[in-house]
Amino acid sequence: MLIQAPELxxxxxxxxxxxxxxxxxxxxxxxxxxxxxxxxxxxxxxxENRARMAGAVxxxxxxxxxxxxIHSPDVIVVDRPWRPDERPKADAMVTRxxxxxxxxxSADCGPVLFADAKAGVIGAAHAGWKGAFTGVxxxxxxxxxxxxxxxxxxxxxxxxxxxxxxxxxGPEFVARFHEADEGYAAFFRPSERDGHAYFDLPAFIMHxxxxxxxxxxxxxxxxxxxxxxxxxxxxxxxxxxxPDYGRLISAISLETED
Length: 258
Fold this sequence. Notes:
Blueprint: E1 2-3, H1 6-9, E2 14-19, H2 43-56, E3 64-65, E4 75-77, E5 92-95, E6 101-106, E7 110-116, E8 121-127, H3 129-134, H4 136-146, E9 155-158, E10 168-169, H5 171-180, E11 188-190, E12 197-199, H6 201-211, E13 216-219, H7 234-239, E14 248-254
Parallel strand pairs: 3-6, 4-5, 9-13
Antiparallel strand pairs: 1-2, 2-14, 5-8, 6-14, 7-8, 7-9, 10-12, 11-12
């Protein structure tokens, strides 16, 4: 049902999970732990799935909070829960309030969980190519610092993301990166189609995190596209002509002080 990163699992007061698609209540193309409130799945099944996830990270179901994600660099500070139909439009959240789980949905994009256990500040970011390119990771770290986190104490973990052998992109995509920084050529390799290339999104995300000089940045090294048993994949569903896809949830919460 869930995967944990040792780098986060050992931190005091911090609970987290990179949820797989297994052990849920949904059926069909959503089988089975679909957490996407924006999907066309049965809302009752999604609510049950999210309740199970909330329990796994130690919060009440209405305190597992996710966003209306728009592939932006926008980050919000969370201090209270909201209803699913009130989801703010942003792609990352930070909080220092115990009893809330900040969560991001993904199905190929990179989910990144952050924690500074000393300061009691946590965060979650949805980093697709556009969010990573425009600075969502750097913005998340900056907002954590505003809440009292120390950059050198922040741990960040990248969860299941589409891998470099599955993410083929066109020439306009490649050109955008090359124009921004010639060094970004390192994240591409030619594909079989003329002018196209495979993009290494996980490596690009890790590059951006490492440049932030936080305490530690690591990746689970898991590909959503190639592991159908455990993960949903937007690109895999698109290649198959499926009408929709499930969403994976990655969440982190902070327990109250003893």
